[in-house]
Amino acid sequence: MKNLCWLATGGTIASRPSENGLVPGFTAQEMLDLLPQLKAYGNIDCYDIMQLDSTNLQPKDWQY
Predict the structure, then answer these.
(1) Which of 9, 12, 27, 55 is labelled catalytic?
(2) Cα–Cα distance, 64 to 2 (Å, whole number)
(3) 3-state secondary structure of 16
(4) What tens digit of pLDDT does each residue of 27-38 get?
């Protein structure tokens, strides 16, 4: 079985509604739990490397 890595950075796909509109809120593991069929592709390790909306991403974040 393959070993895969899921890196979460926030953004639209990980957003939840809040009082201030959409904000990053889902962790990598929570997203994987919503899509259990992905586990058929291999063992997936999940890591949250940041929780930023893509409109707030800056060049310094690319060097994480």
Answers:
(1) 12
(2) 26
(3) strand
(4) 999 999 999 999
Q: Give the rounded percent of residues in the chain with a pLDDT score beyond 90.
A: 48
- Tally the residues of the chain: 64
Place of tokens 């959409």: 22
Take residue 7 and report the two structure tokens written for it. Answer: 């890196």
Token digits of residue 38: 């992905």
Instruction: Please confirm, yes or no, whether 12 is among the known catalytic residues.
Output: yes
Put simply, whether the predicted model's pTM sits higher than 0.90 gets the answer no
- Contacts (Cβ under 8 Å, ≥6 apart) of 14: 8, 24, 25, 26, 27, 31, 51
C-beta of residue 55 within 8 angstroms of C-beta of residue 15:
no
- Phi first, then psi, for residue 30 (nearest 5°) are -65, -40
At 10 the pLDDT is: 86
